[in-house]
Amino acid sequence: MDSIVHILKQNNLSVTEGRRRILSLFLSSNGALAHADIEKNTGSHFDRVTVYRTLQSFVDKGIIHTIPTSDNSIKYALCKDECGEGHHHDHHVHLVCSRCGNTFCLDDVVTPAVKLPHEYIVQQVEVVVKGICRSCNHK
User: Fold this and answer.
1) Model confidence over 20-70: pLDDT tens digits?
2) Helix boundaries (H) for the chain
3) Tens of pLDDT along 82-111?
4) Helix (H) or strand (E) holding 107
5) Which residues are Fe cation-binding (predicted)?
6) Which of 106, 94, 100 is nearest to 132 (CA)?
7) What is the pTM of this model?
8) Residues of each annotated binding site
């Protein structure tokens, strides 16, 4: 069984052509993907709603996580093994390259703990760093 089918079945998702293609994009990508990137790379096979629903089900199951962008849109990246349905454990920093525009998960850079005042509850901490990625730095 290939890794795509295994991931889908492990997360109790039916194996559809749309899910296979979208998950394949994430597995072959070395950075985060925007909704538009996914639509462009899956061709005209799937409408916008199908792509959106697939992404949302992947987020809900802990397969991918969201990354906020400076223009208030969202990018998506693969989760690590610790994530699961209903809870994400992607406590790492994301870097947005100011040269190529790609977004990368920096898995070895942990987000700092945030201590809020009494009666406030932390639900998620998102740290996005703007800088230059490894590839652009070596050009």
Assistant:
1) 999 999 999 878 898 888 888 877 677 888 889 999 999 998 899 888 887
2) 3-10, 17-28, 35-42, 48-61, 134-137
3) 666 655 556 778 888 899 888 888 878 888
4) strand 103-110
5) 91
6) 100
7) 0.77
8) 91, 97, 100, 133, 136
Q: Which residues of 105-132 are buried (b: 16+ CB within 10 A; e: fewer)?
A: beeeeeeeeeeeeeeeeeeeeeeeeeee
Residue with token string 């709603």:
49
Task: Work out how many domains the chain is built from and give that number.
Answer: 1
Residues 89 and 54: beta-carbon distance below 8 Å: no
Start-to-end Cα distance in the chain: 39
Per the document, the length of the chain is 139
Q: Which residues are annotated as a binding site for Fe cation?
A: 91
Q: Annotated binding residues for Zn(2+), as ranges?
A: 97, 100, 133, 136
> Which residues partner with 14 through β-bridges?
none
The residue range of the domain holding 89 is 3-137
